[in-house]
Amino acid sequence: MPFAISVENVTKTFEESRIIDDVSFNLAPGTSSVIVGPAASGKSLLLKCILGLIPIDSGNISINGLKGINRLKETNNIGVMFQENALFDSLTVWENIAFRLINQKRISEKTAKSIAREKLSQVHLTNDSFNKYPAELSGGMQKRVSLARALVTDPQILLIDEPTAGLDPILTTVICNLIAAHKSKFGATILAVTSDMRVAREKYDQILYLENGTIEWAGALESLQKTGTRPVKEFILE
Hints:
Blueprint: E1 5-14, E2 17-27, E3 32-36, H1 43-51, E4 58-63, E5 66-67, E6 78-81, H2 93-97, H3 99-103, H4 109-122, H5 139-151, E7 157-161, H6 169-186, E8 189-193, H7 197-203, E9 206-211, E10 214-219, H8 224-227, H9 230-237
Parallel strand pairs: 3-8, 3-9, 6-7, 7-8
Antiparallel strand pairs: 1-2, 1-4, 4-5, 9-10
């Protein structure tokens, strides 16, 4: 069985600065991994490169065994949550959530609304939000709408950037449990970026520590004490 995601010797340079520097890792199907590291270390950029939103300079990326540009054939099997939420300002909450259902899967508006309402409830938003526009919601509410949209097609791969940023501890637990439940139910592969080290330690199978565009350490938390350097330990265990 091919890896759900395989990144091989990937580099990306902007204005002569190498932001991603020879990064390699493999994610087995049905596992959850999280990328952590200092600010501006290339974490979000790496997700965008995997998605094909930003071209890489060298190396290779494959999704479910499809390499290079061919991996984009798998985008229908991928749910994405961006750090900036990336909601459509001109669409209501339910239209944002159901966008892929209507435009890619050709599902009827009635059915799409029903699914959108279900996903909205899962992220603990009430029906009051259903017909509102993103500008009428708080940042935390927008983030939950973005997650609902990412989950709407029950994707086999979930790429999520800072899913709990700005949320209180109760909602952080709700969102983490929802992501874990999706992984358990569908056997999904999860790749996340987070700045919340408690979430990274407790909610993911594997941690990837990225600094200066390079994976400095990767592994399960229980192996950190034996294999991690002091700076990596201090960052993750802070």
